Amino acid sequence: MNLESLVLDIPVTDLLYLTDSYLKESAATVLRFEPDGRNGAYLVMDRTIFHPKSGGQPSDTGRILGEEFTFHVNKVMFAKGVVVHWGRNIKGTAQSGDFSLTLDWAQRYGCMRKHTAAHLLDSCLPRVLGRQLETTDSWVGDDSYVAYHGEPPTKKQLRSVEETVNSTISMGANVVARTMSRQEAMLLLDPSSLDRLPKSRDLRIVTIEGFRGIPCGGTHVRNIQEIGQFKLKPCQTLGKEFRVNFALNP
Ligand SMILES: [Zn+2]
């Protein structure tokens, strides 16, 4: 399926998780329903609580229900600012009207905890190593990691990072997301972190109290204490990058 032609003429989706990442259920109006010919379908709503696979965060999963309609959301994708839900069409069709959206909350909440932990790692690692680091990649699915340019830390440094992250978590700090102009963001952030972002639009800046904010469209916990116990696994070196692998206590 060509997603760009599927979403042609559809306005950008209202992303409810940006203002409230704890929203587990919501109502929404269907804008497009396209069967895929294999018991599945693509579904576009005017608004959504489902986070698409992007920014190192995996797709949310869950259900979309209506009168005589049951749909299991398996994958969520962005196409030109429009969120496309793909999944198994269990019963009925969804040509028009209002539907209820429900997240698989345990999976999403795990992502929120791991994604916030990745921000904290981003903040603590340069402090322990005493040098600036450029983040090149991250993933908060089953095997979570953050990748950076440069030489990997030693085992001793990794232990120190783990201790720093855990003591920071135990002290607690609020996580706040705020949308601001690029000019305002320039005053708060490392300007190099803005170079990679689109030039002409407001930015959503996520800040863990006591640390520098970073631009991010993901979902976070309200307070870092919700992350729980943070565990580092052995690092991997991949060419000029290294991956810091981590896990959380369930
Ligand atoms: Zn984030």
Explain what the structure shows.
The protein is α+β, with helices and mostly antiparallel strands. It has 2 domains: 3-103, Elongation Factor Tu (Ef-tu), domain 3, CATH 2.40.30; 108-248, Threonyl-tRNA Synthetase, Chain A, domain 2. Helices cover 23% and strands 37% of the residues. The chain contains 5 helices and 16 strands. The longest helix has 25 residues, at 105-129. The two termini are 37 Å apart. The model has no long low-confidence stretch (mean pLDDT 93).
The DSSP helix count reads 5
* Number of beta strands: 16
The CATH architecture designation of the largest domain is 2-Layer Sandwich
Give the helix level as a range of percent.
10-25%
What is the name of the CATH superfamily of the largest domain? Answer: Threonyl-trna Synthetase, Chain A, domain 2
The first-level CATH class of the largest domain is given as Alpha Beta
Elements, N to C (H/E): HEHEEEEEEEHEEHEHEEEEE
> Please, how many domains?
2
Ions and ligands: zinc ion
Beta-strand portion reads: 35-45%
Q: Ends: how far apart?
A: 37 Å
Walk across the major sheet and give the strand order: 2-3-7-6-5-8
Q: Per the principal axes of the C-alpha atoms, what is the gross shape?
A: elongated
Looking at the structure, the CATH topology of the largest domain is Threonyl-tRNA Synthetase, Chain A, domain 2
Q: What summary fits the major beta sheet?
A: 6 strands, antiparallel, barrel
Helix vs. strand class: alpha+beta
Rg over CA atoms, rounded to whole Å, is 20 Å
Low-confidence stretches: none
Mean pLDDT equals: 93
